[in-house]
């Protein structure tokens, strides 16, 4: 699940903001902490007070912050480059699930990634909004058969990343030829 994060970390020269929703006991948190760099930050949003206390006790990392909060009420000042979600969407009423997805979209930077998994009924989407997002934004789907129960992982790219500046135009001229414009990188 952290494969895309690992690639993004290697490709980025700027600090990344990472959000994990529903970290529970921290299984995924451990993997994320192995990948992030000192300049990156990790925020965990957990609604269960017992898990929050455990996460704060087990994971002491200078760039990690645990928030005891409901996702629907979580409003940080900055958006995130990567969002991981371990929320059991299939057990949540559709209207609540839709609200959670809308909130995740608000929290994600343009071009940001959202990765999550489903355990049961993984080809069935209880929430139509989630299904439409997967159909339009999915960049990866994979099965984890060794997991019990088996899971399907989804990674979505949300919006577009800001375009890179165009390559500068330089004057270039071959020896003994007329001047002409060429694009060079």
What topology emerges from the helices and strands here?
Blueprint: H1 3-11, E1 17-21, H2 27-35, E2 41-46, H3 49-58, E3 64-68, E4 80-85, H4 94-107, E5 108-118, H5 128-137, E6 138-144, E7 151-158, E8 169-172, E9 180-183
Parallel strand pairs: 1-2, 1-4, 2-3, 4-5
Antiparallel strand pairs: 5-7, 6-7, 8-9
Describe this structure in words.
This protein has one domain (about 5-185): Rossmann fold. The protein has five helices and nine strands; from the N terminus they run αβαβαββαβαββββ. It has helices spanning about 5-10, 25-35, 50-60, 95-105, 130-135, and strands spanning about 15-20, 40-45, 65-70, 80-85, 110-120, 140-145, 150-160, 170, 180-185. The longest helix is centred in the middle third of the chain and has 14 residues, at about 95-105. The radius of gyration is 20 Å and the shape is globular. It starts with a helix and ends with a strand. Mean pLDDT is about 85; it is low at about 160-185.
- What is the CATH third-level topology name? Rossmann fold
Give the number of domains: 1
Shape: globular
**Would you list the SSEs in sequence order as H and E?**
HEHEHEEHEHEEEE
Helix count?
Answer: 5
Q: How is the main sheet built?
A: 7 strands, mixed
> Which structural class do you get from the secondary structure elements?
alpha/beta
Assign a percent range to the helix content. Answer: 25-40%
Rounded Rg: 20 Å
Fourth-tier CATH superfamily name: Vaccinia Virus protein VP39
Tell me what the CATH architecture is. Answer: 3-Layer(aba) Sandwich
Distance between the termini: 35 Å
**Overall pLDDT confidence:** 83
Strand percent estimate: 25-35%
Pfam family, one: Methyltransf_25
InterPro entries: Methyltransf_25, SAM-dependent_MTases_sf
GO molecular function: methyltransferase activity
Keywords: Methyltransferase, Transferase
């Amino acid at each position: 699940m952290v494969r895309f994060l690992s690639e993004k970390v290697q490709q980025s020269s700027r600090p990344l903001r990472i959000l994990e929703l529903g970290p529970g006991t921290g299984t995924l948190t451990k993997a994320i902490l192995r990948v992030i760099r000192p300049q990156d930050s990790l925020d965990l949003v957990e609604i269960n007070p017992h898990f929050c206390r455990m996460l704060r006790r087990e994971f002491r990392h200078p760039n990690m912050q645990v928030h005891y909060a409901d996702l629907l009420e979580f409003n940080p000042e900055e958006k995130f480059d990567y969002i991981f979600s371990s929320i059991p969407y299939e057990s949540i009423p559709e209207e609540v699930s839709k609200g959670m997805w809308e909130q995740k979209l608000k929290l994600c930077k343009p071009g940001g990634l959202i990765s999550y998994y489903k355990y049961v009924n993984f080809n069935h989407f209880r929430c139509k909004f989630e299904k439409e997002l997967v159909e339009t934004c999915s960049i990866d789907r994979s099965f984890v058969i060794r997991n019990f129960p088996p899971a399907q992982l989804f990674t979505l790219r949300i919006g577009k990343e800001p375009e890179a500046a165009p390559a500068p135009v330089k004057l270039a001229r071959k020896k003994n030829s007329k001047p002409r414009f060429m694009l060079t990188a």
